[in-house]
């Protein structure tokens, strides 16, 4: 079962980064190349503890649906979403936001998953799936970094 970890420093306060990461609208923007869209549950705005969202997207040329639920939250430092149903056997996605200096945040992202289909899933992980998921998550996180930094810069200029 692969565990994908990434870390980014974002020039914005933790609350702004936290809100960006749980924004349904920003999620759809950041994953537009796969056509990812919310089709059930929370479909816009910020997702909260105990709430779920069903995503529809095209991965590997196949339209897929996945439902995730927010199972833990400590605003503005941490939240976890876990798969309720979808293509994986299971996943747990942890998002952590640690203040590091004045108006900077270390964003830690940990995606722990198990592919379906036993040994075939493990082979898929090794051949392509783990690398695909790492790229997918990094692209999304870089997009969130860009948006949070732009928003923070705008608020600083307006002040």
TrEMBL record:
<dbReference type="Pfam" id="PF03364">
    <property type="entry name" value="Polyketide_cyc"/>
</dbReference>
<dbReference type="InterPro" id="IPR005031">
    <property type="entry name" value="COQ10_START"/>
</dbReference>
<dbReference type="InterPro" id="IPR023393">
    <property type="entry name" value="START-like_dom_sf"/>
</dbReference>
<protein>
    <submittedName>
        <fullName>SRPBCC family protein</fullName>
    </submittedName>
</protein>
<feature type="domain" description="Coenzyme Q-binding protein COQ10 START">
    <location>
        <begin position="48"/>
        <end position="125"/>
    </location>
</feature>
